[in-house]
Amino acid sequence: MAKETADSRTEYVYDAADLLLEIRCRWSYARETDAPEIICFSYDRLGQLLTEETVQKFKIIHLT
């Protein structure tokens, strides 16, 4: 699944349970060699969000 605007293209990756696993955003002004911005998500066995992590290794831990 993806969304395009004049400024960017954002792709969304889901698993079989329809949980969001990854968001990738590439800005229209980015050079071809520029890496997209990526956020990865992890969940517990009940499907509750545990972590969000960027490719720069910035990590948010969600407490349940």
Automatic annotation (TrEMBL):
<protein>
    <submittedName>
        <fullName>Type IV secretion protein Rhs</fullName>
    </submittedName>
</protein>
